[in-house]
Structure formats: structure tokens, C-alpha cells
Amino acid sequence: MRFPLIFAIFLIVPMLEIAAFVVIGGRIGVAATLAIVVLTALVGSILLRVQGFGLLRRIQEETDQGRVPKREVVHGAMILFAGLLLLLPGFVTDAVGFTLFIPAIRDAIWGFVSSRLKVRFNVGIDPDDLRRPRPPGDGKTIDLDPDDFSSAGSAESPWRDDPKQRH
Hints:
Elements: H1 2-28, H2 30-64, H3 70-87, H4 91-100, H5 103-116, H6 127-131
Helix pairs in contact: 1-2, 2-3, 2-4, 3-4, 3-5
């Protein structure tokens, strides 16, 4: 299964790109073809920046509300991939890259992939951890109130609390 996919990516996609360059370059000329390639890279970098910052804002909103930003992280990966595709010279990769910048397309792709993806993970204590020997400790725990404890950093530390003392 993996070999045909890698074969398609590294052999068929470049052949499609070359064919697209020949056909489009033959119709509109070399200079216009190269201008389009440069323009799509510029537009792709702008889209990557705009959608990336918007996505970071949505991730922050989700985490502020105590939710895991699953959709946003997946969209972020697809936006990054779309930006990389637009930076590569070629019309086929540009078409796929521009398509991935459409949120509805990303949702459809994620819906398709997530329905076929099974992720398993365990949260909690591993039973074997309870059987492993622990390093010896003194076993003393001191419970302090916030008023009973203070932390004074080094005067040489660049992270000290007093900004007036900084160089």
C-alpha cells in the first residue's frame, strides 16, 4: 500500500507538473508561465500567514475555554501543507495547495480521514510502574501556606522580578 503512494508522489506528480508546464508555457509563453509560478508562491505565503494567524487565535480560544483544539490542529497541519505546496513550483501542486486553503475542503478531508483513523492511547498509571522499585527518599512532605513561602531569584538572573535592575 505504501509503495504505490510513494511511487505516485515521487514519479507521477513531477511528470504531471512537467506536462502542465509544457502545455501552459506553450499557450501563454515562458515569461507569463514563470510569472504565474512566482505569483502563486507569493499568494500562497500571504494566505499561509493570514490563515495561520487566524488559526492560532482559534486555538487560543479553544484552549481558553478548556477544550482540546483537535480540529484547529488538523487544519493547521493542512494549512502548512498547503503553503508548502504553493511554494513549490508547479501548477498541479498549486491547485492542490489552493484547494487546501478552503476550510470546507479541509473539514471534508478530516472527516474522511478521521472516520478511517483509529487512535489509541492510555492515560493513567501503568500497572508496571507500581511494581518498579523507587529511589529512596526521606518521605517528608512539608505543606506551606502561600504566605509561608517566598522565592527570591538571583540578582544576576535576567528573569528577576525588578525590571529596573536590568542592564
